[in-house]
What does this fold into?
Amino acid sequence: MSLDHIVSVTIGGLTVGMIYALIALGYTMVYGVLKFINFAHGEVFTIGGYVAAFTLLTLGVNDGMSALAVAGCLLAAVVASVLVPMAIGFLVERIAYRPLRGRARIIPLLSAIGVSIVMQQSIILVFGSKPVTIPTLALSSASIVVGGIRIRVLALIIIVVSAVLMAGLTYLVKSTRIGKAMRATSQDMEAAEMMGIDTNKTIAFTFIVGSALAGIGGFLVIMYYGSLKFDAGFLYGLKAFTAAVLGGIGNIPGAVVGALVLGMTETYGVSVDLGFLAWFVVAGLVLGLYVQMVRIPRRRLQHIAEDRRTPEYERNLLNVYRLTPYHGVKTLLAERTDALLSVSAEHAVRLMAGNIFLAVVAAVMFVNANVRIDTRWQPVIAFVVLMVILMFRPSGILGEAITEKV
Amino acid sequence: MVHERTRTFLALSLVIVLALGMFGVTGCAAETDGETDGETTGEVEIIKVGVQTALTGPLPDYGAAAKNGIELAVEDFGTFEMDGTTYQVELVVLDDKAEPAESAVVAQTMVDEGVVGVIGSLTTGATLSAIPIYAENRIPQISGSVTGPAANADGVDTFYRTCWNDAVQGEALAVWAMELGAEKVVLMDDNGAYAVGLADVAEDTLQAEGVETLRQNCQSGDKDFSAQVANVKEFGPDAIIFTGYHPEAGLMRKQMVEAGLGDVIFMGGDGIKSAELVAQTGGEANAEGIYATFGGFPEEQQPGYAAFSAKYEETYGEAVGPYAQNNYDAFGALIAAIKQAGSLDTEAIIEALQTVEYEGVTGTFSFATAADGPVARGDVVVAGLTPANVPRYVVEGGEFVSVK
It folds into this structure.
């Protein structure tokens, strides 16, 4: 395995992950505010891609044009692929979801599935069932060579643009008035309304922003892959939704982290040797041990009344979590009257079982260091990693924390 | 009152059902009688031939084309004379919806109908569940469109096909790659039965000749192949054989070109031989030089095609549908076997199918009597076909053109 190989796989994984992230943000924002999964979101992404392709084809973009003209065409495509999904996001919310708000949760969900089918069929009606393709531009096939390693310019652009958009979104939610309104609506819709927040407007805004991001995702995909099929949104939507859950649904940075983990797993899983992958398991193990021995005892101690938090008690709790065999077993067997200590001991044993599992996995991988997993297992690997992560952290990597308190 | 009325109704229904049943039975009996004492000269005897196809389901156009082809064949060969008796074929057309479960039901119905042979079914997946039923009841089955190598894995002597086994293309691709001087070859499939079968055969053929291979896979519907491209780049092959379909093949080719692997020979089976492929690769420049094989001789090389297509268009008012001529030949071959056997005993017909040599629309062919490498029992053996002269195409100027 050469450095060249690892770099190209990493760039590939990051690119895929960033595209998942752009879509995942829409899922997670809507969930954060409404506790509702907008299954039509994947189709919004497809429409973004189709609109971009349609704009480029209508303008007849090709490399014969001057650089300025090409840039103009691309700009027009970006604008179109943002505006149209924005309008669709707004309309869908207004027509299919708002009238159902306050009903049982399953009802808007069904409505979302219906909208998704309608949108997919509409794409076929408007653009036909053949995949849409755009001519290859110099930009989309250009690559730079750094230290003998070939990297596609467009991959770098996708990574940078997505990162900037995500930073912008974080700023929007955290530090602006409308962001504050979003967080308030997410926390308690009725209370937010009483405080004078127009929740309808806020929710519409959430849909519009999510759809715009998905639209840009569609634009980047059509530029990067050169073609898009009417049903692409299904798979992308499914993966982005998975990424959102993986990172902690409702959590904006979580969606990005989840998407990157998913994208990297998909590419790394089947294109680097097990010996290399094992280091990731080792990193997971180290992180697990750190969390168990330092983070959790510290958090637990915060829940204990001041007067009981004696240095001796702290030491006891720490020992239980460090699973010093003697202390752990003693606490388990002694049936201490202190409920927290016994519960913690059991917790610690469970955590340790997980760590041992990771250690065994890492050991097996190191033994088979030169083996590479067959690409046939690509979708399975992503699923297994997802399950393992959700087993250790049911609320996702960064937790389900919807949004911070206003 | 209510009870009494119900009872009367029930009794009446019972009488009607019984009466109908009696009529039905007599009807059947009369027909069987006709079959057994049809030895007298000059009498017309009806024989039943089953058509198991999929008129509904995912491939209705294929199903309709198969039925059309067979009906044309009935017009041409459906009435024949044997030992002084004139026989007339009556088709029993049943729809298996291209579903395995439905296919088993259809096969059983065919057996109950007492057909002397079956043309069909349409798809490999559905055929798999019908084959054992026909084999057990000793009814010969000839398909005109089942191309999957998995179809006759058990090697039963009741299954025959007039279309080429996909495996032929697998071997042809491997042979072609070696002709082009490839010493390291990547095989890539899309995890579907068709693609995996093709890639398996190609891989076996290449490895037998000492060519180094690497197997890669994707999923149908995948867009990103960065993992596979990186693996291919590391392996450094001379050629890649992609056995899936054109949407993924085009994207794979595009991403390989973008990763600087444009010089690697890109080949595939009939799954990639589509005009769509060029658009999927991102333009003519990327598609240039892609090689593809095809699972049948081109129409202009099929001796009876011109006449067949003229008749087809005249009868149905549309262009010849997929595999219609293979189904036409399937029916023709069945009748030829019956004539050769000189009897309507299915055991004798099966016996005759092993040796029959038939001159059809698609060419002169016989059926393989034993499995041999990629060839399964009952596969069509086309006169003069070798892995090296399976039709070859190359993309030139954005179109597939025949390689001479």
